[in-house]
Amino acid sequence: MATSAQTAVDGARVQAFIGRMLGDLGALTNSVLVHVGDQLGFYKTLMKSGPMDSAALAKQTGTTERLVREWLSAQAAQGYVSYDKSAQKFSLSPEQAMVFADEESEFFMAGFFDVATGLFHDVPKIVNAFTTNGAMAWHEHNGCLFCGTQRIFRPAYNHHLVNDWLPALDGVVAKLQKGCSVADVGCGQGASTILMAKAFPNSKFFGYDYHTESIEAARKSADAAGVGDRISFETASAKNFPARGFDLICFFDCLHDMGDPVGAARHVGTALAPDGTWMIVEPFAHDRLEDNLNPVGAVFYAASTAVCTPGSLAQEVGLALGAQAGEARLKQVVMDGGFKRFRRAAETPFNLILEARLS
Q1: Which residues contact 126 (CB under 8 A, 6 or more apart)?
Q2: Between 20 and 30 A from 280 (CA), which of 17, 78, 147, 188?
Q3: How does the average pLDDT of the chain come out, rounded?
């Protein structure tokens, strides 16, 4: 093996890499402060109230001014908030507000920091997974993962599910408008199910997830949204949810997490009406590793390492597709499950929207 003395080092490349690392370390350490600021309402206050100094922000949020001053300084240094040196006040630009303060924005990302906090708590369990059989089930994670995951995915669902993804499926919107039955499998805390129920009042919706605590949260959210009478949330897995002849079955960002996705596909085939549609939403990925070595791939591969792949390995079969499976691998799973038609119906920079039919 070559030693450091035998290996030529490019000084410029070292400096560039150190600069990259400093940026990453700034983001890493500030991620803790993003989670703190999100919980304390700092971003929402800055968005609503406009430019302010640390004393004003502390007063409005009931917090300690000296710590608020340090928080604002760190966030300004990282570029997460803006600083006007002449007025000596801090604010959020419209773009920063979309990411950190506006939960209805398509680009709201504070949920990622909830998940990151939970994963740091889970490091001993993740290390154990690496040194044993690779398995760590979804329910074994810190609670921040569950609420954070919903906050990550809900903005895309809000802006694309009803407006873009469902219309991209052949004939599905007409069925929903007339009245049909829909299963949302792996529904988590019900964000996607509730959105569809609100948009299509003539249809009946059924949400299934194996995680009982998420199902309980989904029921409360549906009642609060006024659609609890049109959604039935039940604890069930992707291989044993009731086969009710559904017109539409949805899998949102969950097929790759399953231990036996082929078995899940076979069960979907038995649960669909003959002319029914299976919509599969998955993280965007190309089919080759080298094409996924980019910022989106970095996020999804990291999440896959800590959550998705160990979660699959904790289940029967343990196929471990990973969050960057790619369309070709997903198509193979679906076709092996007995489906005859498969196509990419739509996409975003973060999602693949796939349509499968039995004939």
Answers
A1: 119, 136, 306, 310
A2: 147
A3: 95
Nearest residue to 349 (alpha-carbon basis) of 303, 314, 297, 311: 297
* C-alpha–C-alpha distance, residues 267 and 179, integer Å: 23
- Express each pLDDT in 63-99 by its tens digit: 999 999 999 999 999 999 999 999 999 999 999 999 9
Mean pLDDT of 327-351: 97
The per-residue pLDDT for 148 is: 83
Element (H or E) spanning 252, and its range?
strand 246-252
Distance of alpha carbon 308 from alpha carbon 305, whole angstroms = 7
Pairing of strands 351-357, 272-283: antiparallel
3-class DSSP state of 199: helix
- What is the tens place of the pLDDT at every residue in 284-296? 999 999 999 999 9
The pair of structure tokens assigned to 287 is 């089919």
Nearest one of 222, 279, 207, 215 to 247, comparing CA atoms: 279
Provide CB contacts within 8 A for 329, sequence distance 6+: 287, 321
Residue 171 DSSP code: T
Enter the tokens of residue 55.
């004393």
Give the pLDDT confidence of 138-161 residue by residue, as tens digits: 899 987 887 788 888 889 999 999
Of 300, 257, 252, give the one whose Cα is nearest residue 280: 252
Tokens of 52: 């302010």
Closest among 257, 345, 256, 241 to 356, alpha carbons compared:
345
CB atoms within 10 A of CB 211: 19
Tell me which residue of 63, 58, 50 sits closest to 94, measured CA to CA.
Answer: 50
For residue 123, give every residue at least 6 positions away whose Cβ sits within 8 Å of its Cβ, in sequence order, or none: none
Nearest one of 231, 248, 230 to 172, comparing CA atoms: 248
